[in-house]
Amino acid sequence: MKIHHIAIICSDYEVSKKFYTEILGLSILQEVYRKERQSYKLDLGIGEEYVIELFSFPNPPDRPSRPEACGLRHLAFSVENVHNKREELIGKGLKCEDIRIDEFTGKEFFFTQDPDELPLEFYQM
């Protein structure tokens, strides 16, 4: 039917919460602290559409997350204007790759990363 959500475990909850809400502009739908797991669970949306669960856990192990590593390659967001989004994110202090062209669709896109180096793609719609 559709993807329900994407779950991300972060190394620093407050840093990642600020990144996804203040830098990327996702909305907080719900935030809970699970005392028995020493874990926050933050439900984030694009508007009111639930898209990401952001988790904190004590001492999570590292996982390779480079674009060509086995496993999750990247998380992609569609945007109305790739050039404007790139300039906005650079203005907020992010390092963004140059804009590239998808050889199959002809659409523009670029990559940046979240605080835990999860690759994030912004794709022209």
UniProtKB/TrEMBL annotation:
<keyword id="KW-0479">Metal-binding</keyword>
<dbReference type="Pfam" id="PF00903">
    <property type="entry name" value="Glyoxalase"/>
</dbReference>
<keyword id="KW-0456">Lyase</keyword>
<dbReference type="GO" id="GO:0016829">
    <property type="term" value="F:lyase activity"/>
</dbReference>
<dbReference type="InterPro" id="IPR037478">
    <property type="entry name" value="YwkD-like_dom"/>
</dbReference>
<dbReference type="GO" id="GO:0046872">
    <property type="term" value="F:metal ion binding"/>
</dbReference>
<feature type="domain" description="VOC">
    <location>
        <begin position="2"/>
        <end position="125"/>
    </location>
</feature>
<protein>
    <submittedName>
        <fullName>Glyoxylase I family protein</fullName>
    </submittedName>
</protein>
<dbReference type="InterPro" id="IPR004360">
    <property type="entry name" value="Glyas_Fos-R_dOase_dom"/>
</dbReference>
<dbReference type="InterPro" id="IPR029068">
    <property type="entry name" value="Glyas_Bleomycin-R_OHBP_Dase"/>
</dbReference>
<dbReference type="InterPro" id="IPR037523">
    <property type="entry name" value="VOC_core"/>
</dbReference>
<dbReference type="InterPro" id="IPR051332">
    <property type="entry name" value="Fosfomycin_Res_Enzymes"/>
</dbReference>
